[in-house]
Amino acid sequence: MPRKKLPLGELRTATITTKITPAERLHIQETARKCGLTPSEYIRQRAIGYEPASALTPEETELLHNLDNCRVDIVNYANALAGMQREQRMAMFNRVPFMLEWYKQIISVMNAVNDFINSVVSGGRIQKRTITNLRKLNK
């Protein structure tokens, strides 16, 4: 990972040395890599109270792509509804059994989208509940 150049007043010249076990060193290096940081930057951020967000795992990336496909489906449904005449839409949506089935199908997609948006807004990783919802959509 290339080092970023700091302005003269922000150059880091002081050091703190601490001894750790080889297992701890490996854990720090691996966690820093997952966060897209150097071990020094990771330790510095943790020491000042900031917990960096980890990069997405391959599984989370795949689930995110699936979520994007769900979004495309929602847009396609909205476009199809917009292409219908008002009377056709009203007749379709006034059928209670149809609406209940439609709601059961769409709610898991909407929950997954909502969970993802909330996790992005809060600056965290994709939450466990979102991953569970997306796995259900894949089945």
What report would you give on this structure?
With 139 residues, this protein is mainly α. It has helices at residues 22-35, 39-47, 58-83, 86-93, 96-121, 128-138. The longest helix is centred in the middle third of the chain and has 26 residues, at 58-83. The chain is elongated.
Low-confidence stretches: none
Percent range of helical residues: 55-70%
Put simply, the count of helices is 6
- Radius of gyration, in Å, reads 23 Å
Assembly state:
single chain
pLDDT average, as an integer? Answer: 78
The portion of residues forming beta strands comes to under 5%
Q: Structural class of the helix and strand makeup?
A: mainly alpha
Overall outline: elongated
**Terminal Cα separation, in Å?**
38 Å
Helix/strand order, N-terminal first:
HHHHHH
Largest sheet: none
Query: Got a strand count?
Result: 0
